[in-house]
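How a chain folds remains the central question behind the approach discussed here. For one protein, we set the task of working out the structure tokens from the amino acid sequence alone. The sequence in question and its structure tokens are set out directly beneath this paragraph.

_____
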Amino acid sequence: MVAAQKMRRPAVVALQTLVIAACYYGAGRLGLMRRLTVEGAVFTPIWPPTGVAVAALLLIGLRAWPGIAIGALLVILSLSSFSSLELSAAGIVAGNTVAPVCAWLLLRAVHFRTDLSRFRDGLALVFLAALGAMTISASVDVGLLVVTGKLALGDFWPVWLAWWVGDAMGVLIVTPVILMLYTVRPPISLARWKEAAVIIVAAGVMVPVATRSSISMLFLIYPLLIWAALRFELPGSLVCALFASVMATVAATEDAGPFHRLSHTEVMIKLQAFNGTMALTALLLSAVITEQRNTRRSVELACQELVEVLEHLTAGNPTPRPPPEEGEGRG
């Protein structure tokens, strides 16, 4: 029995590693379908593999890092431009692996909860994992491009900014969605499904119009995002934000809608500003709403328990009879 368990554990770890590598590679191929160019360097506005990597570490632990490294290597080998750069490829794999691990360590240090039910968890994911730890991958990857002569030294900071924001967007948009799917609850009631259907239809109409209209109408998405967060908390706001980010990225890479006739740098700034503010709004607003509702439920439960305790005490100690009046009971 013990021997079987010892053999089963390496098999499970190997299977987890292969699944993580496959998910990382698949997310990388999806991200590479939409690219932008800044100062001659090609990058993705949203790099989903960083979100997959951070989510895998949060759900499985440090043993997820080999799968992340293998997935990063497979993505790099699939690009012909990096096929002959052994040193560069090794450095990029290291940077793309170390950055999510550092994000996991930072989140673990502040006792991060994967259900994102607290406002502090949203802040930690934004500032520690996304904006903080992803500076490592951007610095290593862009630095290697400069060292190998693929990028001029004067173009370091614009490309670094684009690379960093793309990695950070992957954590802000993809990681919460994976964590949400991991803790998905049973189906909601029929009445809630009707409201969810209304939100889905509204998103299907408003988001394409806002991202494809020649008039800058991206602000129309925010009321829809707030509605989804108020009624369905994290699942509703994250799905809405993911859909809007994908549609905006497609429009930006096709030079359509509010991104028409803009320079590559202007497209990058406008798109990343929109994706970033929308992801922050969805994540932090949902965390605040969830935290307030959990607090209210805790207070209601405590009040209910207090009432039950008082009823129990009252039942065990009957009300004493009043003392007889003077002269009553005598004679």
About this structure: The beta strands are 36-38, 41-43. The chain has a mean pLDDT of 84. The CA atoms of residues 16 and 64 lie 7 Å apart. The two ends are 87 Å apart (CA to CA).
